[in-house]
Amino acid sequence: MGKVIPLPDQVKRHIQVGQQALAAKDYASAVAHLEKAYTTDQTFDTAVLLVRALNGMQMASEALPVISHFMHQFMATPEHQQELLTTLLAVPDYSSAWALSHHLDDADQAAFRQRIAEAEDHDMSSNKADIEALRKQVQHMGGRAFHEQEQLVSELGRLPKPVLRSALPPLLVDDDVHPAIRVSVLETLTAIDVDQALPMTTYLGEQQVVPATLPGVMNDPTIVNLLQTAQTQYPDQDAEIEMLRLSLGFYIRLLIK
Protein backbone atom coordinates (compact mmCIF):
# COMPACT_ATOMS: atom_id res chain seq x y z
CA MET A 1 0.00 0.00 0.00
CA GLY A 2 1.38 3.40 -0.91
CA LYS A 3 2.19 6.18 1.53
CA VAL A 4 -0.83 8.26 2.56
CA ILE A 5 -0.23 11.94 1.84
CA PRO A 6 -2.38 14.38 3.88
CA LEU A 7 -4.54 16.63 1.73
CA PRO A 8 -4.46 20.43 2.21
CA ASP A 9 -8.02 20.37 3.59
CA GLN A 10 -6.97 17.81 6.19
CA VAL A 11 -4.06 19.99 7.32
CA LYS A 12 -6.34 23.03 7.53
CA ARG A 13 -8.83 21.04 9.60
CA HIS A 14 -6.13 19.85 12.02
CA ILE A 15 -5.00 23.46 12.50
CA GLN A 16 -8.55 24.70 13.08
CA VAL A 17 -9.36 21.94 15.58
CA GLY A 18 -5.98 22.49 17.26
CA GLN A 19 -6.69 26.20 17.65
CA GLN A 20 -10.11 25.46 19.14
CA ALA A 21 -8.55 22.99 21.57
CA LEU A 22 -5.92 25.56 22.56
CA ALA A 23 -8.61 28.13 23.27
CA ALA A 24 -10.41 25.57 25.45
CA LYS A 25 -7.09 24.62 27.15
CA ASP A 26 -7.56 21.06 25.95
CA TYR A 27 -3.84 20.74 25.35
CA ALA A 28 -3.76 16.99 24.72
CA SER A 29 -6.18 17.36 21.81
CA ALA A 30 -4.35 20.47 20.59
CA VAL A 31 -1.00 18.63 20.52
CA ALA A 32 -2.49 15.64 18.69
CA HIS A 33 -3.98 17.77 15.90
CA LEU A 34 -1.19 20.32 15.61
CA GLU A 35 1.51 17.65 15.44
CA LYS A 36 -0.35 16.13 12.47
CA ALA A 37 -0.60 19.55 10.84
CA TYR A 38 3.05 20.39 11.47
CA THR A 39 4.20 17.14 9.87
CA THR A 40 3.05 18.55 6.53
CA ASP A 41 2.80 22.31 7.15
CA GLN A 42 6.14 23.18 8.72
CA THR A 43 5.54 26.92 8.77
CA PHE A 44 6.18 29.38 11.58
CA ASP A 45 2.47 29.97 12.22
CA THR A 46 1.86 26.28 12.76
CA ALA A 47 5.04 25.96 14.80
CA VAL A 48 3.88 28.68 17.21
CA LEU A 49 0.59 26.90 17.81
CA LEU A 50 2.33 23.58 18.37
CA VAL A 51 4.81 25.11 20.82
CA ARG A 52 1.96 26.66 22.81
CA ALA A 53 0.17 23.33 22.93
CA LEU A 54 3.32 21.46 24.00
CA ASN A 55 3.99 24.04 26.71
CA GLY A 56 0.40 23.65 27.89
CA MET A 57 1.02 19.90 28.18
CA GLN A 58 4.25 20.61 30.13
CA MET A 59 6.26 19.11 27.28
CA ALA A 60 8.76 21.95 26.92
CA SER A 61 11.63 19.67 25.93
CA GLU A 62 9.60 18.45 22.96
CA ALA A 63 8.91 22.06 21.98
CA LEU A 64 12.61 22.99 21.75
CA PRO A 65 13.33 21.21 18.41
CA VAL A 66 10.34 23.00 16.88
CA ILE A 67 11.61 26.35 18.16
CA SER A 68 15.13 25.69 16.86
CA HIS A 69 13.88 25.69 13.26
CA PHE A 70 12.37 29.17 13.67
CA MET A 71 14.64 30.79 16.25
CA HIS A 72 14.91 34.11 14.39
CA GLN A 73 11.14 34.41 14.07
CA PHE A 74 10.62 33.61 17.73
CA MET A 75 13.14 36.29 18.67
CA ALA A 76 11.61 38.91 16.34
CA THR A 77 8.65 40.10 18.45
CA PRO A 78 8.02 40.44 22.21
CA GLU A 79 5.02 38.07 22.04
CA HIS A 80 7.03 35.26 20.50
CA GLN A 81 10.06 36.01 22.69
CA GLN A 82 7.86 35.33 25.70
CA GLU A 83 6.68 32.02 24.21
CA LEU A 84 10.31 31.05 23.68
CA LEU A 85 11.18 32.09 27.23
CA THR A 86 8.24 30.15 28.64
CA THR A 87 9.69 27.05 26.98
CA LEU A 88 13.24 27.58 28.22
CA LEU A 89 12.12 28.30 31.79
CA ALA A 90 9.92 25.22 31.81
CA VAL A 91 12.78 22.88 30.81
CA PRO A 92 14.55 24.69 32.60
CA ASP A 93 17.52 25.93 30.58
CA TYR A 94 18.54 29.18 32.24
CA SER A 95 21.93 29.60 30.56
CA SER A 96 20.38 29.43 27.08
CA ALA A 97 17.78 31.98 28.17
CA TRP A 98 20.49 34.35 29.40
CA ALA A 99 22.46 33.83 26.18
CA LEU A 100 19.47 34.65 23.97
CA SER A 101 18.79 37.81 25.96
CA HIS A 102 21.93 39.31 24.40
CA HIS A 103 20.10 39.52 21.07
CA LEU A 104 17.25 41.72 22.31
CA ASP A 105 16.80 45.49 22.32
CA ASP A 106 17.34 47.15 25.68
CA ALA A 107 13.64 47.44 26.58
CA ASP A 108 12.81 43.85 25.64
CA GLN A 109 16.04 42.60 27.20
CA ALA A 110 15.23 44.10 30.61
CA ALA A 111 11.84 42.39 30.81
CA PHE A 112 13.28 39.12 29.47
CA ARG A 113 16.08 39.06 32.04
CA GLN A 114 13.83 40.04 34.91
CA ARG A 115 11.58 37.11 34.17
CA ILE A 116 14.58 34.73 34.10
CA ALA A 117 15.84 36.05 37.44
CA GLU A 118 12.40 35.69 39.02
CA ALA A 119 12.11 32.11 37.77
CA GLU A 120 15.56 31.29 39.14
CA ASP A 121 14.70 32.76 42.55
CA HIS A 122 11.51 30.71 42.71
CA ASP A 123 13.36 27.58 41.60
CA MET A 124 16.10 28.02 44.22
CA SER A 125 13.55 28.37 47.00
CA SER A 126 11.36 25.49 45.78
CA ASN A 127 14.00 22.99 44.66
CA LYS A 128 16.97 23.79 46.88
CA ALA A 129 17.97 20.16 47.52
CA ASP A 130 17.92 19.14 43.83
CA ILE A 131 19.90 22.20 42.78
CA GLU A 132 22.47 21.66 45.52
CA ALA A 133 22.90 18.00 44.56
CA LEU A 134 23.58 18.92 40.93
CA ARG A 135 25.90 21.75 41.97
CA LYS A 136 28.06 19.33 43.95
CA GLN A 137 28.28 16.93 41.02
CA VAL A 138 29.25 19.73 38.65
CA GLN A 139 31.79 21.25 41.00
CA HIS A 140 33.50 17.90 41.46
CA MET A 141 33.36 16.63 37.88
CA GLY A 142 37.16 16.61 37.63
CA GLY A 143 38.45 13.05 37.44
CA ARG A 144 35.19 11.61 36.15
CA ALA A 145 35.14 9.82 32.80
CA PHE A 146 34.75 12.08 29.77
CA HIS A 147 31.22 10.88 29.02
CA GLU A 148 30.23 11.64 32.61
CA GLN A 149 31.67 15.15 32.34
CA GLU A 150 29.80 15.58 29.05
CA GLN A 151 26.55 14.56 30.73
CA LEU A 152 27.06 17.06 33.54
CA VAL A 153 27.83 19.84 31.06
CA SER A 154 24.57 19.05 29.26
CA GLU A 155 22.77 19.70 32.55
CA LEU A 156 24.34 23.10 33.30
CA GLY A 157 21.28 24.95 32.00
CA ARG A 158 19.35 23.50 34.94
CA LEU A 159 21.38 25.54 37.40
CA PRO A 160 20.41 29.16 38.14
CA LYS A 161 22.90 31.88 37.30
CA PRO A 162 24.10 32.54 40.91
CA VAL A 163 24.95 28.84 41.31
CA LEU A 164 26.82 28.71 38.00
CA ARG A 165 28.85 31.80 38.88
CA SER A 166 30.18 30.10 42.02
CA ALA A 167 30.48 26.50 40.79
CA LEU A 168 32.09 26.84 37.35
CA PRO A 169 35.21 29.07 37.60
CA PRO A 170 37.37 26.48 39.45
CA LEU A 171 36.77 23.99 36.63
CA LEU A 172 38.61 26.25 34.16
CA VAL A 173 41.94 25.45 35.82
CA ASP A 174 41.22 21.86 36.85
CA ASP A 175 43.56 19.59 34.87
CA ASP A 176 41.23 16.66 35.56
CA VAL A 177 38.49 18.41 33.55
CA HIS A 178 38.80 17.56 29.86
CA PRO A 179 39.91 20.55 27.70
CA ALA A 180 36.77 20.33 25.55
CA ILE A 181 34.66 20.40 28.71
CA ARG A 182 36.53 23.50 29.94
CA VAL A 183 35.57 25.16 26.63
CA SER A 184 31.90 24.35 27.28
CA VAL A 185 32.19 25.67 30.84
CA LEU A 186 33.68 28.92 29.54
CA GLU A 187 30.85 29.16 27.01
CA THR A 188 28.32 28.93 29.83
CA LEU A 189 30.12 31.63 31.83
CA THR A 190 30.09 33.80 28.69
CA ALA A 191 26.36 33.26 28.26
CA ILE A 192 25.59 34.42 31.81
CA ASP A 193 27.77 37.54 31.54
CA VAL A 194 30.46 36.80 34.11
CA ASP A 195 32.45 40.01 33.95
CA GLN A 196 35.49 39.34 36.14
CA ALA A 197 38.85 38.03 34.91
CA LEU A 198 39.20 34.28 35.43
CA PRO A 199 42.23 32.01 34.93
CA MET A 200 41.78 29.23 32.35
CA THR A 201 44.13 26.44 31.38
CA THR A 202 44.22 25.95 27.59
CA TYR A 203 46.52 24.24 25.10
CA LEU A 204 48.42 27.53 25.04
CA GLY A 205 48.94 27.56 28.81
CA GLU A 206 47.11 29.46 31.51
CA GLN A 207 45.38 32.66 30.42
CA GLN A 208 43.21 35.32 32.00
CA VAL A 209 39.81 35.60 30.33
CA VAL A 210 36.79 37.79 30.98
CA PRO A 211 33.83 35.67 29.79
CA ALA A 212 31.49 38.64 29.25
CA THR A 213 33.89 40.13 26.67
CA LEU A 214 34.09 36.95 24.56
CA PRO A 215 32.06 36.24 21.38
CA GLY A 216 30.03 33.40 22.84
CA VAL A 217 28.51 30.88 20.47
CA MET A 218 25.00 31.87 21.53
CA ASN A 219 25.88 35.57 21.86
CA ASP A 220 27.54 36.11 18.48
CA PRO A 221 25.02 36.89 15.67
CA THR A 222 27.27 35.48 12.92
CA ILE A 223 27.65 32.13 14.66
CA VAL A 224 23.95 31.98 15.51
CA ASN A 225 23.10 32.65 11.85
CA LEU A 226 25.45 29.89 10.71
CA LEU A 227 23.96 27.39 13.15
CA GLN A 228 20.42 28.43 12.16
CA THR A 229 21.24 27.90 8.48
CA ALA A 230 22.75 24.48 9.17
CA GLN A 231 19.76 23.48 11.33
CA THR A 232 17.32 24.52 8.60
CA GLN A 233 19.17 22.75 5.79
CA TYR A 234 19.88 19.59 7.78
CA PRO A 235 16.89 19.25 10.15
CA ASP A 236 17.55 15.60 11.06
CA GLN A 237 21.22 15.97 11.96
CA ASP A 238 20.94 17.07 15.61
CA ALA A 239 24.14 15.34 16.74
CA GLU A 240 26.17 16.84 13.91
CA ILE A 241 24.74 20.33 14.56
CA GLU A 242 25.73 20.03 18.21
CA MET A 243 29.27 19.04 17.17
CA LEU A 244 29.39 22.08 14.88
CA ARG A 245 28.32 24.31 17.77
CA LEU A 246 31.01 22.91 20.06
CA SER A 247 33.66 23.10 17.32
CA LEU A 248 32.91 26.76 16.64
CA GLY A 249 33.16 27.52 20.34
CA PHE A 250 36.42 25.58 20.59
CA TYR A 251 38.11 27.36 17.69
CA ILE A 252 37.01 30.75 19.00
CA ARG A 253 38.66 29.94 22.31
CA LEU A 254 41.92 28.96 20.54
CA LEU A 255 42.06 32.51 19.19
CA ILE A 256 42.20 33.93 22.73
CA LYS A 257 45.68 35.22 23.39
What is the mean predicted local confidence, pLDDT? Answer: 86
Number of helices: 14
Radius of gyration, whole Å: 20 Å
Low-confidence regions:
none
Query: Into which percent range does the helicity of residues fall?
Result: 55-70%
**CA-to-CA gap between the ends?**
62 Å
What characteristic shape results from the CA principal axes? elongated
Order of helices and strands: HHHHHHHHHHHHEEHH
Alpha-beta content class? mainly alpha
Instruction: Characterize the largest beta sheet: strand count, sense, and whether it forms a barrel.
Output: 2 strands, antiparallel
Q: Order of strands across the biggest sheet?
A: 1-2
Number of strands: 2
Estimated share of beta-strand residues: under 5%
Plain-language structure description:
The structure is a single chain. The chain has helices at residues 8-23, 27-40, 44-56, 60-68, 71-76, 78-90, 94-101, 106-126, 128-139, 146-154, 161-167, 179-191, 221-233, 238-254, and strands at 198-202, 205-209. Strand 1 and strand 2 (205-209) form a beta hairpin. It is elongated and about 65 Å long. With 257 residues, it is mainly alpha-helical. The N and C termini lie far apart (62 Å). The protein has a two-stranded antiparallel ribbon.
SSE blueprint and pairings:
Layout: H1 8-23, H2 27-40, H3 44-56, H4 60-68, H5 71-76, H6 78-90, H7 94-101, H8 106-126, H9 128-139, H10 146-154, H11 161-167, H12 179-191, E1 198-202, E2 205-209, H13 221-233, H14 238-254
Antiparallel strand pairs: 1-2
